[in-house]
Design brief:
The protein is of the alpha/beta class. It is built from seven helices and 15 strands. It folds into two domains: about 1-100 and about 240-265, no CATH class; about 100-235, Response regulator (Rossmann fold, 3-Layer(aba) Sandwich), CATH 3.40.50.2300. A six-stranded mixed beta sheet has the order 1-14-8-7-6-5, with helices on one face. It has a six-stranded mixed beta sheet with strand order 10-9-11-12-13-15, sandwiched between helices.
Length: about 280
């Protein structure tokens, strides 16, 4: 696995990069793309923020085929007829994949809590069925692994790993409520995505507690909701633009042998982490 970092001399937006052969990267997504379809987009690569799966053919160069959620895809036979790069996805077809560094992001997120002084740390969003099924998600397992690795380096163990059926606000609300009723509740919570964190915030508030004064929260994805929460949510951002840029660059350079290229997920520090109470 190779870790890729965006070059410092490039424009900050992948949607503004000029690429040879008149290939440009478009600024906006096309809504309501149907799961599993290939969308012929001519000379434009449409960004990751779409519904479902999309592909783009670049004037005979090949395909970028991507998923909205990080998971394993079944790649259509038509895509396999030309050079192709998978974006935010893997397959069993021997194609190059560009993925977010979920494990590294989880390590950063847990480390942020540890550096603030937290030792009673819980996780919200475990789902063993999803962790065993790469078609549903390949993000859950590396995120869990990264959290555990960071804690192990400080000789700390999770006090609880709350199981959820989905990664939605109501799931975060229910599990966090249960955690707060423990005899020694957590002072720090790692949520597996921002939607779970939204529910966690609600449960903490309803328990008469505050973020981050009583409970610190850190999460993943940097969904728009993260900056709207009060206090703002510290979260590891999905690197949409660097991933899109790398996928196009790999396609233009000839993807070559299969393998994974992982792109760092920066930790966006806001106001949801503080020292534990007392």
């Amino acid at each position: 696995m190779t870790t890729w970092a965006p070059p410092t001399d490039r424009p900050t937006s992948a949607f503004e990069v000029e690429i040879p052969h008149a290939l440009t990267v478009a600024r906006h997504a096309i809504p309501r793309v149907i799961e599993g379809t290939i969308v012929p987009l001519g000379l434009f690569l449409i960004g990751l923020r779409v519904i479902g799966v999309w592909g783009a053919m670049f004037a005979g160069l090949g395909f970028v085929y991507a998923a909205m959620f990080t998971r394993r895809l079944t790649v259509p036979a038509a895509v396999l007829t030309r050079p192709a790069v998978l974006l935010n996805a893997t397959s069993t077809d021997g194609l190059v994949s560009v993925l977010p560094d979920d494990e590294g992001a989880a390590y950063q997120a847990a480390t942020a809590l540890l550096r603030a002084g937290h030792r009673r740390i819980a996780l919200v969003g475990r789902n063993t069925a999803v962790e065993r099924d790469p078609v549903r998600s390949i993000a859950a397992t590396p995120r869990l692994r990264g959290v555990r690795r960071a804690l192990a380096e400080h000789r700390v163990r999770l006090i609880a790993a709350g199981q959820t059926e989905n990664w939605d606000p109501e799931d975060g609300y229910d599990v966090t409520g249960h955690l707060l009723r423990l005899g020694r509740p957590p002072t720090g919570i790692v949520c597996m995505n921002d939607r779970l964190a939204f529910g966690a915030y609600q449960a903490i508030t309803e328990a008469g507690l505050a973020v981050p004064g009583d409970v610190s929260v850190v999460s993943f994805d940097d969904d728009p909701i993260a900056s709207w929460l009060r206090p703002g949510l510290t979260t590891a951002a999905l690197p949409h633009e660097p991933m899109g840029r790398l996928a196009v660059e790999l396609l233009l350079a000839d993807p070559g042998e299969d393998g994974q290229r992982v792109v760092p997920m920066p930790l966006i520090t806001r106001s949801s982490i503080a020292a534990p109470p007392g």
